[in-house]
Amino acid sequence: MTKPEIKMPIRTARLADALTTAIVVLDAQDKLLYINSAGEQFWDVSYGVLLKQGFAPFFEQNPILAKAVAEARLTEQVVTLREAELVSIHGQTHIADCAITPSPDISGADILLELADIERHMRITRDAQLHAMQISTRQLVRGLAHELKNPLGGLQGAAQLLERELPNADLREFTQIILNESSRLKNLIDRMLGPNNRPQMQRINIHEPLEQVRRLLSIEAEETLLQEPLQWHFDFDPSIPDVLADRDQLIQVLLNLSRNALQAMSENDTNNPTLRFKTRVLRRFTIHQTLHRLVLRIDVENNGPPVPDTLVESLFLPMVSGRAHGSGLGLSIAQTIAEQHQGLIEFKQKPGAVRFSLILPLSQSLPGQDTQGQHHQETPP
């Protein structure tokens, strides 16, 4: 539905549509007079829907905002909210700074809402801090792993020489234990060092690796101790363009995330175990201080137990695991692969939903190709 170009000057409305701050104008009965594009995105709703239902449902969903609006009307003064947690009609949460202006100089208007979504800035700051910590820890672990490889190689060589000299075959059982255990340590060290191969980048349809992961996990799910059959939910955007990535490495990342979810649900006897894959394109997203015009987000979500708060900040560090028999390397390796693709993995959880999101730029290009891809409107998560 086309927005009306009355109520406020056309030029003003066009300028408001260019803002990243959400603008909402209401009359005295909380009916919508105007909302800009950022406002539709913030509240995850279209102008047409808001025009029919009014803004009352949002006030019911967000009593802190309703109280501030009532105060602004009563005092006829501007009321501000800092770092308010607001929820859209579909349950999407935003952290925002809000300004509520009563009786704005707009025809028929009673309230002007200005909402600046600061969650992005908070996320960027938090991601930068975590990224710096991950890099430092990874460098420390890699340095330690390199130092361990040399004496471990000497140990293996000595055990092999000793095995040749032993006169009794029964004694070779002990040298075999040394060789087997040292090989296991060497494999662990190689995993600690992370992927050695540079990504073999090519254009791929992201839904093909997701289907491959589903096939692999479906087989594994039949062999786990899940109380009930694993349920799959898919929410794919078919308009997503091909992404520039290493197919095998993406499968490894998505398999690590999905397998962790499967193991967590199995070990905790989750009722109605469910794994959900979701793909969306987001617009103007910052990854490690770089603003990307378009990014791809792949959600791997499960309804298993929440991650303990004590582990949330260190999830992607090497050797950190919440499972009794976990190596703590799967998420660290997955994050390393994501970073090799100029992307990252995010983690969020709420009751009944644990979500890992792989985020990759869509604006990359192969050598000699134009870096300007097709334009896609962001689909709210």
UniProtKB/TrEMBL annotation:
Q: Which residues form the Histidine kinase domain?
A: 143-364
Database matches in InterPro entries = HATPase_C_sf, HATPase_dom, His_kinase_dom, HisK_dim/P_dom, HisK_dim/P_sf, PAS-like_dom_sf, Sig_transdc_His_kin-like_C
Q: Which GO terms describe its molecular function?
A: ATP binding; phosphorelay sensor kinase activity
Q: Which Gene3D superfamilies match?
A: 1.10.287.130, Histidine kinase-like ATPase, C-terminal domain, PAS domain
Q: Enumerate the UniProt keywords alphabetically.
A: ATP-binding, Kinase, Nucleotide-binding, Phosphoprotein, Transferase, Two-component regulatory system
Q: Which SMART domains match?
A: HATPase_c, HisKA
Q: What class of enzyme is it?
A: transferase
Q: Catalytic activity, per the record?
A: ATP + protein L-histidine = ADP + protein N-phospho-L-histidine
Q: What is its EC number?
A: 2.7.13.3
Q: Which PROSITE patterns match?
A: HIS_KIN
| Name of the protein | histidine kinase
Source organism of this protein record: Halothiobacillus neapolitanus (strain ATCC 23641 / DSM 15147 / CIP 104769 / NCIMB 8539 / c2) (Thiobacillus neapolitanus)
Taxonomically, what lineage is the organism? Answer: Bacteria, Pseudomonadati, Pseudomonadota, Gammaproteobacteria, Chromatiales
